[in-house]
Amino acid sequence: MSVDYSGVSSGIIGRAESEFKAKPTGSSSLGKDAFLTLLVTQMKYQDPLNPTGDKEFLAQLAQFTSLEQLTNINDGIEKLTSATNQQQMFSAANFIGKEVKASGDSLSKSGDTVSKLYYTLPEAATKVTINIMDANGNIVRTVDQGAKAAGEQSFAWDGKDWLGNAQADGVYFAGITTAKSDGTSMMVDTTVTGIVSGVSTDSSGGYVLETQDGRKLSLLNVKGIVNQTS
């Protein structure tokens, strides 16, 4: 038994040759017309007495089509990611020269000036203790804040250690412990402020705001603008 494809063979082969000649050198995508032409051309040369081979061929074509679709989806995601990163860069640049408030626990000391720390208590605390640590995690001062009401509170460190000695200029960190009336502790959100002087990226590629006093605040942690400076 045989199947006559003679009525379409010359046109098919001609279209296939024309399609491939028209494609730019190095192109990684296969046009729809060329794909369909190759499909029909392959069917022309299939052995009608070997249906298993036909099934394998069709399965391969289905895999090829799925791969092409996934490639197109991946290209779309990459373009979207690129556009998002560009938008984040512009957003970060708009903060330059402005004082922002962001989630964080870093404090900056420069001479007699120390940046402020803000923290929010979900409910009233009978005791709040703030530990000031240096860049190595060593506690240089512990400050007892006493009882505090629920809501946002502020803390201003005087830049001195336990003995009243002024500490070196640089970046420090604050750790807060709390106690409720039943003796249990609670989670505390801390925020800091700083005047943005520049923008950079971290190890993961995320945008970071650099402050005038040497700290770095993640763009994703910014909660608002406190004040604008020229």
Distance between the termini: 88 Å
The CATH class assignment of the largest domain is Mainly Beta
Helix count from the secondary structure assignment: 3
Helix share, percent: 25-40%
How would you sum up the major sheet? Answer: 7 strands, antiparallel
- What sort of overall outline do the alpha carbons produce when their principal axes are compared? elongated
Indicate how many domains the architecture comprises: 2
Strand fraction equals 25-35%
Rg from Cα: 33 Å
Order of helices and strands: HHHEEEEEEEEEEEE
- Helix/strand-derived class? alpha+beta
| Low-pLDDT residue spans | 1-13
The CATH architecture assignment of the largest domain turns out to be Sandwich
Mean pLDDT: 78
Total strand segments: 12
**CATH topology of the largest domain, what is it called?**
Immunoglobulin-like
Organism: Fundidesulfovibrio magnetotacticus
Pfam families: FlgD, FlgD_ig, FLgD_tudor
InterPro entries: FlgD (IPR005648), FlgD/Vpr_Ig-like (IPR025965), FLgD_Tudor (IPR025963)
Domain FlgD/Vpr Ig-like: 104-179
Could you explain the architecture of this structure?
It contains three helices and twelve strands. It is of the alpha+beta class and 230 residues long. The strands form two sheets. Strands 1, 4, 7, 9, 10, 11 and 12 form a seven-stranded antiparallel beta sheet that branches. Strands 3-2-8-5-6 form a five-stranded antiparallel beta sheet, with no helix packed on it. The protein is elongated and about 95 Å long. The model is unreliable at 1-13 (pLDDT under 50).
